[in-house]
C-alpha cells in the first residue's frame, strides 16, 4: 500500500523535472580587445505556458557594456518553446580573464524565478605585448616623413550660416535703432559736399568772366547755377526761362536775371558781376534753409 502511494509522488517529481527552464550561454569569440565588440549568445528552453524574459539594455552587463541585442523569434515544438538572443558587448577592462553569466527570468504572479547558465570566459588580448618603463629617443620606432600632404579645405557651412545670420540680425537691429540718424548723417554729408563743389565751380567761372568777359562763359555760369538750384530745391530750374524763375521766386531775382540775360543775348559786358554775386547769395540762403530742414527733419 505504501509503495502504491509513492507512485503519484514520483510522477509529480518527474513532471516537475520535465518542466524545468534550461538555459545555455557562451561567447562566440574566445578573446576580447578594448573597445572591440564581441558577441554573447543566450538560449532558453522552457514549457510553452511559461513567460520568460531575457535581459534588456538596462541590465548590468559588468564587466562589459551593452552595445546591441538581436532577438531570434520564439519557436515552439511539442509544448516546448525555444528563445535565443545574441548580445553585442564592449569591454574597456584589462583583466586577463573576463567572465559573464546572463540570467533568464520566468515571470510569475508575485515574483520571478531566475535561471543562470554556466559562466563563460573570454581572454583579454592586449594590443601591446609589453610596455617598457623607459626608452631612449634614438630607439623609438618612429618614421620621418617631411613630404607635404595636401589637405582639402572644408568650409564649415553651419558656422558660416550662424555668423551670417548673426551679422544680418545685428545689421537690422542697428538700422531700426539708428537708421534715421545714419540717413541724416549721409544726407548732410552729401548736401555739404555738393554745395562746396558748386561754390568752387561757380567762383571759377566768375573769375574767367572778371578777367575776360565772354557771353558763353556767362551762359555756362547761369546753367551751372540752374542745375544746382534744381537739385537743391527739387524745382525744374533748368526748364524755366528767366521770366518764369522771377515769378517763381516772387521777383527776388528780377534785376540779377535781367542783367545776366543782357550779357548772354545782347552780348553786353557789364560794369560788374554783381548779378552773379546776387545769385550766389540767394543760393547760399537757400542752402542754409535746406540744411536746417535736414538737421531737424
Describe this protein's structure.
The structure is a single chain. The protein is of the alpha+beta class. The chain folds into 2 domains: 21-124, Sandwich (Immunoglobulin-like); 180-296, no CATH class. The protein is built from 6 helices and 10 strands, in the order αββββββββββααααα. It has helices at 2-18, 157-211, 215-233, 242-248, 254-265, 274-296, and strands spanning 22-27, 31-32, 38-47, 52-53, 64-77, 80-91, 97-100, 104-107, 112-115, 120-124. It has a 4-stranded antiparallel β-sheet, with no helix packed on it. Helix 3 packs parallel to helix 6. It is rod-shaped, with a radius of gyration of 52 Å. It starts with a helix and ends with a helix.
Structure in a nutshell:
This protein has six helices and ten strands, in the order H-E-E-E-E-E-E-E-E-E-E-H-H-H-H-H. With 297 residues, it is of the alpha+beta class.
| Total count of strands | 10
The computed structural class is alpha+beta
User: Treating each run of at least 4 consecutive H or I residues as one helix, how many helices?
Assistant: 6
Instruction: Sum up the overall morphology in one term.
Output: rod-shaped
Can you give the helix content as a percent range? Answer: 40-55%
Number of domains: 2
Strand content: 15-25%
Q: How many angstroms does the end-to-end distance come to?
A: 124 Å
Task: Supply Rg.
Answer: 52 Å
Strand order of the largest sheet: 1-3-6-5
Largest sheet: 4 strands, antiparallel
Secondary-structure element string: HEEEEEEEEEEHHHHH
Q: Any low-confidence stretches, pLDDT <50, length ≥5? A: 1-18
* Mean pLDDT over all positions: 86
